[in-house]
Amino acid sequence: MSLWLLLVGLAVLWAVWWHWWGPLAAWLINDVIGLGDDRLAETLRFFIYDSVKVMGLLTAVVFGVGIVRSFFSPERTRLLLAGRRETVGNVMAAGLGVATPFCSCSAVPLFIGFVEAGVPLGVTFSFLIAAPMVNEIALAMLLSLFGWKVALLYAATGLLIAVVAGWVIGRLRLERFIEEWVLEIRMGETLPGEVLTWSDRFAYARLAVKDIVGKVWPWVLVGIGVGAIIHGWVPEAFLASVMGADSWWSVPLAVLLGIPMYSNAAGIIPIVEALLEKGAALGTALAFMMAVIGLSLPEIIILRKVLKPPLIAAFIGTVAVGILIVGYTFNVVL
After folding, report:
1. What is the pLDDT of residue 81?
2. Cβ 258 vs Cβ 291: under 8 Å
3. Quick one: which of 172, 141, 115 has its CA closest to 293?
4. 86 and 54 in contact (C-beta within 8 Å)?
5. What is the pTM of this model?
6. Domain boundaries defined on the chain
7. Dist. CA 14–CA 137, nearest whole Å
8. How many CB atoms lie within 10 A of CB 100?
């Protein structure tokens, strides 16, 4: 009971802080620091305000997600997907990818485990695409920063890409392009999972905050810094002409720019926020974000350890086409 009371108390304090941080930040920036109205002041104002806002939001979200993640494990996920047929398996795998604590660094061991458990290749890719792309931390931050419509669009389109791309890869029958050593591995039987109490789950969530926030905060600040520079120094007319809905080449350019970048979801959102403020089209901004998260160069390099080039190419091609369709669709509709 004491843990629940503490959790409720912290939630109330966080809500009060979130509500008053805007006015407090304005007072600190305008009256205490005395920033003016030039470009440098706008850049610093964006950085100071967003640094505290995003880091506070990230900490709260990671704690909540940590509790959800305590109900999942790689072994349980493998068991849920083993033996599932395609189509139904693609949908289920994409949904599990959102809720499970896996990122690009887990790609190789997860892929090996799924192959060993008999999960079809297309179903495996639906999971591997959804896990980083429809990141639950990014989803919660988008909800808080941009509202439920943008968050829902992001989640729905990301899941659709994961389901369709996985189904297409499964239909291509590319199993022969898995590295032979992966097919020879036998990982053994899965042991029953440990039963956790709520105290254990809260402890797990605290460790998640320490581990995740402790690792990503430099990247988050870099992302906020880039967003601050865009906010303060990039002319609106220029960015609107480059990433606006009227420029047919803006979406593929955003995807090409996003692939080689290395950033986590929390770090890329401040950049997207600044792009949208400066006149970038929503579809183009979402395409950029999805390319950074779902087609990151580090993940592709890691997957090369278990996949041959034709399968890597099929993975990149199907996901990229899905992102392009999403970008163009939103630029036309919204």
Report:
1. 65
2. yes
3. 141
4. no
5. 0.64
6. 27-334
7. 17
8. 23
SS (H, E, C) the chain: CHHHHHHHHHHHHHHHHHHHHHHHHHHHHHHHCCCCCCHHHHHHHHHHHHHHHHHHHHHHHHHHHHHHHCCCCHHHHHHHHCCCCCCHHHHHHHHHHHHCCCCHHHHHHHHHHHHHCCCCHHHHHHHHHHHHHCCHHHHHHHHHHHCHHHHHHHHHHHHHHHHHHHHHHHHCCCHHHECHHHHCCCCCCCCCCCCCCHHHHHHHHHHHHHHHHHHHHHHHHHHHHHHHHHHHHCCHHHHHHHHCCCCCCHHHHHHHHHCCCCCCHHHHHHHHHHHHHCCCCHHHHHHHHHHHHHCCHHHHHHHCCCECHHHHHHHHHHHHHHHHHHHHHHHHHC
Spell out the residues 6+ positions from residue 66 whose beta carbon is closer than 8 angstroms to its own.
201, 204, 205, 206, 207, 208, 209
Residue 153: burial class (beta carbons within 10 Å; 0-12, 13-18, 19+): buried
The size of the chain, in residues, is 334
> Average of pLDDT values for 37-44?
76
Q: Which residues pair with 178 in a beta bridge?
A: 307
List of long-range contacts for 318-321, beta carbons under 8 Å, 24+ apart: 318/164, 318/165, 318/168, 318/169, 319/129, 319/161, 319/165, 319/294, 319/295, 320/255, 320/291, 320/295
* Tokens matching residue 134: 């429809």
Q: What percent of the chain has pLDDT over 70?
A: 74
